[in-house]
What does this fold into?
Amino acid sequence: MANLEKIAHLAEESEYDVSTPRKNWDELDLDKLQTLGSGTKHDVCASTATPRVVKGLQRIGNTSRGGICHSFTPDGRCVSLFKTLFTNECAHDCSYCPNSDDCSNQKKTYSYTPQELADITLSLYQGNYVEGLFLSSGTGKDEDIIMEKLIETVRILREEYKYEGYIHLKILPGTNKDYIKRSLEHADRVSLNIESCSKSRLHEVSSTKHYDYDILRRQRYIRDLMEKKDLPAGHTTQTIVGGAGENDKEIFESMIREYRRMDIKRMYYSSFKPVKGTRLDDKEEVPNSREHRLYQTDWLFRVYDLKPSEISLAFDEEGFLPDGDPKVKIAKRKLDELVDPNEASYERLIRVPGIGPKSAGRIVKAREKEEITKWSELSKFGVVLKRARTFLEVNGWKHSTLDRWSS
Amino acid sequence: MSLSERKLELLKANENTERKDIHLAQKIDNEELETAKKDDIIRIRKLIRETGREIHKMKGFVRLKQLGEKIKCGYMKPKHEVGFMVADWFARRFLGDVIVMGNEEKSWISVYTEEGITHEKRESLKRALEKLKDHLEIENETNLEDVWKIYYKSQYSEERKNKELFRKNMPEKYIKRTKNKIEKEFKSRKLDEY
It folds into this structure.
């Protein structure tokens, strides 16, 4: 324990403290803040988890291995980053996007300067409102000019302010490879949204973005550059669900391609919502449940390590994921015999609905010491018995019901 | 083998932890804690998790006001004895700054310098700041709260409104324990008015 005088003295004398300019925000254009903030609300990645370990002592901030949410909006989504566009001016004509060149409801166009944006980010970070910056943008008239400004913003943060917090930087479609390389020098994570599941589907919603050239080629640049320069939180992408009339199977197949060929860390799904003034403003909105089912299949592939052919059992004949958990649908088709938690392998256990990787791991470790003899023991390991019991047999006891065997 | 220091620290910080819990925790290891079937060990697991969750929420939901060049101050009223764990964490994030966290009854003051962490527990937040005034310059904060308010609202998607999820992720108790203004304002209104 120390007294306050000593604490004040230590702070005064410390050379660790990096001074930053104090800003008065009275002159900040709040319409700009609102419009450019709002322009990113359909970009759903909110992760701030990064394995980057901050070592230096002349710095502001650090990172968190597990990520932190600083607030939640009334839609229940996490606010973890200062997520904003650099500018809402864009040369593309994407039919779902309020920033598109041909949106009849196009609001006034705004842009930040790199300095202004770096200052807002730093202030919000120091106030513990956010865990870092998520910087996206319209392309302006030329994507390379805007990309240079995005990079300048993060350069000011990293080099001039010695900021070591989290940075997620968007790579604009068609960006020059050199700018991608420079982006990787400063960011924890970069992302380039594929927006649609294939070339033909993208063509239906945008005549200016080229799937192969503007998107996939740039993703390959990122993937290849990552072999030389570590990108702590990897690269990600996002697709719109149902904007171009695609079914879930098409999106699922593009998910597999993205994970396998592009080596992405995560894929995000955003169900289509019509925006006034866009070419698709009279198209019916896509329910959030579709997005949710796709996240479930993504989880089964990425975390549970299920094969795509196995996950395909969850789709109906039209290529959609019907209501209900895909894992239950797969289990009903694949688990032809009841699973004994004392005998089953880890791989078989995690295929049982209500048993996740953590509870399966606990079962495997616990049974080495003592056999599982009661149902209640399973719930102590985190198993959701309500969902799991019709697939299990414990000590000769079964809970099979007709529902277990119905399709 | 025994429980990690961190887990023991979290257990001791929980206000519901009893002497018998600590006694038992000192006899088990991390694997036993994770795979236990006995109720008394499962209770320890829950107590540790509960404290860890509160620290995590405080790290995210507490807001810091910059007072002068050297002080960052935030309101928090944790249920468990986690004051130093949170204040020290902020001190490591903002090196050389005096972190003052607290409420009407208690405060935790922490700084990370060349000597490592130095910290002290005091009476109320207000009293701690008054005493610090004798040693450090304290200016009024800038109007950052207004910037946050506009930005926060810009992130909301009306078509995704989900009050159950909001309440689950941001329970009333944490809004109160960190005095979050905009979330509190929102909570006091009906979602449809937002």
Remarks:
- Chain B has a mean pLDDT of 91.
- The longest strand of chain B covers residues 107-113.
- Strands of chain B lie at 65-67, 71-75, 98-102, 107-113, 116-122.
